[in-house]
Design goal:
- The chain is globular, with a radius of gyration of 18 Å.
- The mean pLDDT is 97.
- The protein has 2 domains: 129 residues; 81 residues.
- It starts with a helix and ends in a 16-residue tail after the last helix.
- The chain has a 4-stranded mixed sheet with strand order 4-3-5-6, covered by helices on one side. Strands 1-2 form a two-stranded antiparallel ribbon.
- The chain has 11 helices and 6 strands.
- Helices cover 58% and strands 12% of the residues.
- With 234 residues, the protein is of the alpha+beta class.
- Helix 8 crosses helix 9.
Length: 234
């Protein structure tokens, strides 16, 4: 069974989200005020505390089946604004209230939904830890679960656009995304592919991966988000 297949049958996304969240909250509670106000380079319009506000607000919204009425950017801004005048502890308390129901929902909806929100949390935690100069996770079940979500999303995007298929080699695994004959291959660590798909790698960084075949076609399609103009280092 492939790594993806094994994870889809064995990973409890609710439990994994809970573990990542608990570790993140414990770290946040150790930070002085000036670090909570630090700009997060991967999301430069946000401070560290704004990232936490987004994550807490997302659990509130989705627990209430609110999906932003077709305006995901507006939904995200509203989540941050909701906690603009709140202390970090108040934001964490709101997240604590919502998290058990949210995490149970990730279990009930299964891996192909749960890995989305594990991936979102993992990417934002990586953003914050990088902004604070802390070590980031380059190889864990959380990283591979995150990569599964982003490659799922990329696969759906390529199929919808009729853009063909390419292979991502992330040793020891590999996966074809899209449909049809494989027109290109990219080889890079799982962490790098996940960060690229999450909009955390510049066009230059993506081009610097090991590519064969029709790289020019697929490089701009790797992320569903806008590509940063400057290199992102983490």
């Amino acid at each position: 069974m492939s790594g993806y297949g094994l994870r889809s049958e064995t990973v409890d996304c609710g439990g994994l989200y809970e573990t990542i969240r608990a570790d993140f909250v414990a770290m946040l509670r150790t930070l002085p005020v000036e670090q909570l106000e630090r700009c997060v380079g991967a999301t430069p319009e946000w401070r560290v505390r704004d990232v936490v506000a987004h994550l807490a607000g997302l659990t509130e919204d989705l627990n209430r089946a609110y999906f932003g009425e077709g305006d995901p950017d507006g939904m995200t801004r509203a989540q941050v604004d909701r906690f603009r005048d709140s202390s970090l502890e108040e934001i964490i308390q709101a997240w604590d209230r919502e998290a058990p129901a949210f995490e149970e929902g990730l279990r009930l909806f299964g891996y192909q939904v749960g890995n989305h929100f594990v991936g979102d949390l993992f990417i934002h935690v990586t953003d914050v830890r990088s902004a604070l100069g802390l070590a980031v996770d380059h190889d864990s079940v959380a990283l591979w679960t995150t990569l599964d979500w982003y490659l799922d999303a990329l696969d759906a995007s390529l199929r919808d656009r009729g853009e063909g298929a390419f292979k991502a080699i992330t040793a020891p695994e590999q996966r074809v995304v899209g449909v049809g004959s494989v027109a290109a291959t990219v080889t890079a660590p799982a962490f790098e592919i996940a960060r690229a798909c999450a909009g955390r790698r510049s066009a230059g960084q993506i081009a610097a991966f090991a590519w064969t075949g029709d790289a020019v076609r697929f490089q701009p399609l790797m992320s569903q988000y806008s590509t940063p103009t400057a290199d992102v280092i983490d």
